[in-house]
Design a protein that fits this description.
heterodimer; A: alpha+beta; 2 domains; B: OB fold (Dihydrolipoamide Acetyltransferase, E2P)
């Protein structure tokens, strides 16, 4: 892509007006960057031109065209998956948001790390039914430690499937254990394996629109890659469709919703809140190979961490070692059951905390409380 | 041996004797404190993991999940007025206020103790329990 022409905002706005202005171009924080700095944000190695053409053609073929993007077109084909709603937005599920705040990858091609982490954070909250989970995972750890082991760098970027594999096989620690710096370096907290999010598995959903929508509606989010054109940098609002400008590279984001009426996906980007709709964007079905290049979704997210939480509920059944506790902002966790009497002893302790409305200090290991303190 | 006293009702004779078939030969409580309620309909099954959410939880999906399980959609909610145990294995009973005596399932000693602990907390705090019972035998207990 060495011959890419820089962004021409004036020409773009003329073209948008000519095509009925399906979206609004503004001077985003990204559009105001130098061309070389903009392209540095695109951290998925772009396909060659013939492959890009094939992906785009395939995406356009499986999605209906919506003219000016103002609705009225047919719903997307959802063969094989029944009862997917016409719209879903993980930012507003019965008035609750399961999407974590928009971040900024800075001047580094680390979008794969951001798109993957954003997807995992949403899935962890959504699958637990916990909008207040507020999981904040470390893109720095994923990209500059786990990714670097398989060749990731700011200049080269990375592949989403490698990121998901690392999150499944090793796990990614929390932001406070290795804060993002926008470059290499930083110190990984030596206790990182006790503050970890780990996938039980992940799915490759590339090209299967029904499966993508179903995964978003049941898991909250997927990661996806798109071929970025120059006009995307100046996206300010509306349903994005490529209007003008050459291809600039490949980019990874998180899809957190869809809308069949508007014919679009709802994406979460990692270019800060000064770009797009407060960091989010809507992109038309079939645009920029967003469905057909690389789409992945997490099955579920195991969390290993110390927590301080109020006990909001307790549960037991007639079965052995069947006691559970409902931790505020985290949900149900089974009490330890690895040794005779442990389950009952922990329940005795937690009933005391519950009675006094005092938080418990507990180690949560993949849905089980293995250690608890009540003070 | 059966309970011989009823809290706050020492001056009154037992109103009714309950002889649940599930007692299995072990003594059952015979004194009913007050306000005997009608027996809830028996239901099958006890989930291995909790499926309900606290009443004030922001979670909106788990109840629907519970409904999908089928059969476990209605729960008895009551505070605990009294407890009863005897010199028999797994023979703890709980008096649900406005409902009556219910035996804790004797299926497993561990589960029996765990449910009794939650009933004790309800008795001490006045916090209501949410229970799933089958034929007047409590098989699942939630405490919010």
């Amino acid at each position: 892509m060495a011959d890419v022409k820089p962004l021409d905002l004036g020409a773009l706005r003329v073209e948008l007006d000519r095509t009925g202005a399906p979206w609004r171009s503004v001077d985003t924080t990204v559009a105001l960057l130098e061309e070389q700095d903009r392209r540095r944000l695109l951290g998925v190695p772009a396909p060659d031109s013939s492959e890009a053409e094939r992906l785009i053609t395939q995406a356009e073929a499986i999605a209906p065209h919506y003219g000016n993007g103002n609705g009225g077109g047919p719903a997307m084909v959802t063969n094989g998956v029944a009862a997917i709603g016409a719209s879903f937005d993980a930012r507003n599920v019965y008035g609750l948001s399961y999407v974590t705040p928009v971040k900024n990858q800075g001047g580094c091609g680390s979008c794969v790390s951001f798109g993957t982490v954003a997807t995992i954070e949403t899935t962890a909250a959504f699958t637990r039914g916990q909008p207040d989970l507020k999981l904040d995972l470390s893109e720095q750890h994923l990209f500059f430690v786990l990714g670097a082991a398989t060749g990731a760098s700011c200049a080269s970027g990375w592949w989403p499937e490698h990121a998901f594999t690392a999150c499944r096989d090793t796990g990614v620690t929390f932001e406070d254990y290795m804060p993002y710096q926008g470059g290499g370096g930083g110190t990984l907290n030596p206790d990182w394996q006790n503050r970890l999010a780990k996938l039980t598995g992940f799915q490759t959903l590339t090209g299967n629109v029904a499966a993508i929508k179903n995964h978003i509606a049941t898991r909250g989010a997927v990661s996806a890659c798109l071929i970025v054109y120059q006009d995307f940098f100046s996206y300010g609002a509306g349903v994005y469709k490529h209007v003008s400008g050459a291809q600039a590279g490949g980019h990874c984001i998180s899809l957190v919703g869809f809308d069949d009426v508007l014919g679009c996906w709802i994406g979460k980007n990692s270019w800060g809140t000064g770009w797009g709709e407060q960091g989010f964007f809507r992109i038309g079905y079939g645009e920029c190979a967003i469905e057909t290049w690389r789409v992945h979704g997490a099955d579920s997210v195991n969390l290993r961490m110390w927590v301080d939480a109020l006990i909001k509920g307790l549960y037991a059944t007639e079965s052995a070692d069947s006691a559970w506790a409902y931790l505020e902002k985290l949900g149900w966790a089974r009490l330890a059951y690895g040794a005779p009497g442990a389950n009952l002893a922990m329940l005795n302790e937690l009933t005391s905390s519950r009675l006094r409305s005092q938080p418990v200090h507990a180690f949560h290991d993949n849905g089980q409380l293995t250690t608890t303190y009540s003070f | 041996m059966s309970p011989t006293k009823t809290q706050n009702r020492k001056d009154k004779a037992p109103e009714e004797t309950m002889t649940p078939a599930t007692a299995g030969g072990a003594p059952a409580p015979t004194i009913i404190p007050s306000n005997v309620g009608t027996l809830p309909a028996a239901r099958d099954g006890a989930a291995a993991a909790p499926t309900l959410s606290p009443p004030d939880a922001t979670d909106t999906g788990v109840e629907a999940q519970a409904a999908e399980l089928g059969g476990i959609t209605a729960w008895q909610t009551a505070s605990v007025g009294a407890l009863y145990t005897t010199n028999n294995a797994m023979n703890a009973w709980v008096f649900l206020n406005a409902v009556g005596w219910r035996r804790l399932s004797p299926t497993n000693a561990s589960g029996h103790q765990l449910m009794l602990e939650l009933c004790r907390l309800s008795r001490d705090s006045g916090v209501a329990l949410q229970v799933d019972e089958d034929g007047s035998v409590i098989k699942t207990v939630y405490l919010w």
